[in-house]
Write a structure and sequence with these properties.
alpha+beta, binds guanosine-5'-monophosphate, globular, 7-stranded antiparallel β-sheet, 232 residues, 5-stranded antiparallel β-sheet
Amino acid sequence: MEVIIEGKVKTVYQGDDSQQVIIEYHDKVTAGNGEKEDHPLGKGSLCCSISALIFEKLAKELIPTHYINMVGANKMICKKVDIVPLEVICRNRAAGSIVRETTLNEGQPLPQPIVEFFLKDDSKHDPLLTPDRVRLMGYDPKPFIEMTLRINDILRSLFYILGIDLVDFKVEYGYDAHGDLYLADEISPDSMRLWKIGGEERFDKDLFRKDEGDIVPAYRQILDKLQPLAVT
Ligand code: 5GP
């Protein structure tokens, strides 16, 4: 298969149809801009299956996503889109970079969800962007903010039912050949913070980032909890 993009933990191949790609999720996890790396067995298929379930759930709520279907355990066929070089982050509570870079405390609830933009460029260490900078890069922030807040509402309710607090998450978007906007990339515990409601348990990549536990059993718990809610 022709490789289109070799990412840190995924490879994107050209699909048989020129308007489709195949995304392969590897048994690999990285942190700190690739400085830390591990190869946990089964992680690729867990992230692929969780992403697929979440994309299906969002599609049912009329969010346009690039996801078409899964092929095998760790690959999905997706619509080909031009990825916007922005990491769009939504936060419900303070954690991670917002705690490091502001006076907010870890776990502090935000009065309302916020959406932030980061440049998707590892060589520049993904800096935080202002809305003006996003506009200067040629993108109107409004549709990204609106769609991300809708996704947040859907996912927050979904995880709440499962006893999990959606602290924050990162999404990426792309445009198809007609200029229509689609949710792209992945949504998995690699790109979210998931905290047990009323407990200390964590189910996301922070376990790896902070050396606090194994991600595979944690991600498996998320898949097991999501599976009964799968769209039929
Ligand atoms: P933070 O800004 O606190 O580092 O990240 C906020 C949220 O976005 C977290 O859930 C984190 O996992 C996710 N996130 C931020 N940057 C990246 C990234 O480059 N890759 C992935 N997979 N997730 C990211």
